[in-house]
Every structure is written in C-alpha cells, then in structure tokens.
Design goal:
- The chain is α/β, with parallel strands linked by helices.
- The protein has a single domain, classed as Nitrilase/N-carbamoyl-D-aminoacid amidohydrolase.
- About 30% of the residues lie in helices and about 25% in strands.
- The chain contains 8 helices and 16 strands.
- The strands form 4 sheets. A 6-stranded mixed beta sheet has the order 5-4-3-2-1-16. The protein has a 6-stranded mixed beta sheet with strand order 8-9-10-11-14-15, with helices on one face.
- It starts with 7 loop residues before the first strand and ends in a 5-residue tail after the last helix.
Length: about 290
C-alpha cells in the first residue's frame, strides 16, 4: 500500500446524526461524493456517525453485525464509486462472542476500492456522572476494545482512537512510539465537557505524539435529545489548530503536510528522548 509523501487534502464531516440509520448513511454517502469532488484524498466522519440514540431499547433494533450492516455497505459503496479513502468514525455493531450481549463501538478505515483495511473498537468506556445531571454508562451496552490499531493511508501512518480515549495519554504515548504521522479521534463530545476540555486535550495529544490530530465531531441538538459540542478539529504536531468547524454541521477541509512532522520532531525530539520512569522514582518518599 502506498501513501502520499507531499501535502494531502482531507475532508471532515461534522454531523448531527439521528436515530434513522438510513438518513445518516445517506448524509455520509453524499459527503463522500462531495469530498472527492473537491479534491480530498480522504474523508473523516464522527463517532456514532450511523446511529446516535441514547434510548438503547430503540437503538437495539438497528444494531446488527458488521457483515449485515446496511450503513456500512452504503458507505463502502460510496467510497468505491468516488474512489476516495474513508474513515467511519464509528458505528455500533454486535460484538461477536460477548457473553453479556453487548455491542462494539467500532471505527472503520475503507480504501478507494471499498475494502475495509482497518477496524478499531473503542477501548475506554464513558462511564460518568456530570454536574449537570447527565449520566452515561457506556460499559453497560458496549464491550471495550483491547487492541491499539494503526493503518497506512493517504496521511501516512494513522493511529485510531475514539472520543473518551482522548483522556488517556498512555494510548497516545503508544501511538507516538509507533511512529504515527496522524491520529484520528472522532467524537460525540458533550457540551459541559467540551467547553473546558476539547481544544486543550486535542492540542496536547498532538504535541505529545508529535503527530497531526484529526477529530471530526457530532454537533448540535440530536433526535434523541442530547446536545453535542462540535468544533471538529485538525491540529498540527506543534499544537497549531489548522481547522475548527465551530457549531454547524457540514464539510470542512484541511491540508496535511507531512514535511511538518520532521520539522517539529527535530525541534522537540520528545519521542526519541522518552525514557521509562524508574519504579523507585514513583514510590512515595518516607518521612
């Protein structure tokens, strides 16, 4: 598989996904065609792009295995017809072999022939009680992933993460150690957490991994009653924001210039300077 070495134009789809998978799939398919028409080599979509529904009983009727997913079939066909790479931020699918009957929150990388070349199941589950009264228990319905995943694509070596993974720096340290040129963090971030944390954490992950960060997001009021923060971002390895899509759904474009990676890594060689912390240094000192 070959990847471009010069500047690459990418597209991000900021969505207000709802409870109708067919409508969400159509939105993604239209975006695939538009992104290709405007010269993008790859399109990135948000977490839960195919179905966003906090009513799990209602949502269960639409969640099937990967092989049986009409949403996945639709976007694979759209990518093949447009001849473009596609990263589906995530879809809910049945988790094979899970004794509790849980789902997987799974992202897909699809090549211009429509083939799935990488899959990633979200590792960290969003189990929180917010001060606003919002309560989320992702682990009650979703099985956490167990594999760190990278894939070669037009932006170089791409590391995969999803939403709440953003808060766990060990994952990004591993992706940095694996030499990722870019990391994608599709999200459906809440507004109360997004306002104080979204931008600063995205920039921090780009800086510590010395990589581009590409983060398409859900935005606005959704059919299930939730509100998401938006602000899909592209951040360069120096922490500079190249694209911020604000609070409206639609397509945004940015250019990934991989020559920037060598410049940043030369100025701040943190990846090669990193050392394991001795266990003695982590022990509490006694009085």
């Amino acid at each position: 598989m070959t990847t471009a070495s010069g500047p690459v134009r990418i597209a991000l789809l900021q969505m207000t996904s709802g409870i109708d998978p067919g409508a969400n799939a159509a939105t993604m398919a239209d975006a695939v065609a538009q992104a290709a028409g405007e010269g993008a080599a790859m399109l990135f979509t948000p977490e839960m792009a195919g179905l966003l529904d906090r009513d799990r009983k209602r949502a269960r009727d639409h969640i099937v295995s990967e092989a049986d997913s009409p949403t996945l079939a639709t976007v694979r066909d759209a990518a093949a017809r447009a001849g473009i790479w596609l990263h589906v931020g995530s879809l809910p699918v049945l988790a094979d072999g899970d004794n509790a009957g849980r789902f997987a929150n799974r992202s897909f990388v699809i090549d211009p022939g429509g083939a799935i070349v990488a899959r990633y199941d979200k590792i960290h589950m969003f189990d929180v009680d917010l001060a606003t009264g919002e309560s989320w228990r992702e682990s009650a319905a979703y099985r956490p992933g167990e594999q760190v995943v990278t894939v070669e694509c037009p932006v170089g070596k791409l590391g995969l993460a999803i939403c709440y993974d953003l808060r766990f720096p060990a994952l990004f340290s591993e992706l940095g150690d694996r030499g990722c040129d870019a990391i994608t963090i599709p999200a459906a971030f809440t507004v109360p957490t997004g306002i104080p944390h979204w931008h600063v954490l995205q920039r921090a992950r780009a800086i510590e991994a010395s990589a581009f960060v590409i983060s398409p997001a859900q935005v606005g009021r959704h059919a299930d009653g939730r509100d998401t923060y938006g602000h899909s971002l592209v951040v360069d390895p120096w922490g500079e924001v190249l694209l911020d899509m604000g609070t409206e759904p639609g397509l945004g474009f940015a250019t990934i210039d991989r020559s920037r990676l060598a410049d940043v890594r030369r100025q701040v060689p943190s990846l090669v300077n990193r050392r394991p912390i001795p266990r003695s240094a982590m022990a509490r000192s006694g009085a």
